[in-house]
What does this fold into?
Amino acid sequence: MRLVMNKNLTNKRRVYGEHPSKITQIFSASDIKHGLSLFTDREIRDIEDLISERHGKFYIKCQLEDKYKVAKPEEIVRQLWVYRLLN
It folds into this structure.
């Protein structure tokens, strides 16, 4: 899949082909996207690999507890901080 940047999208929003990334879908409200501005593109990509979709909901694998949690924006930011501290 080729990464395509769309100038109409705000910072940190990526479109893979025609489909928005998982993190872009979860952070759909513009007032909560500022939480991603503290992290590098590499950190965001690595955390996105921990997100899976089941039954129409997104889940993220917790790096500390080794179990899946509902991928709400605050949980994604928490996992980004954990990732930064561990790597």
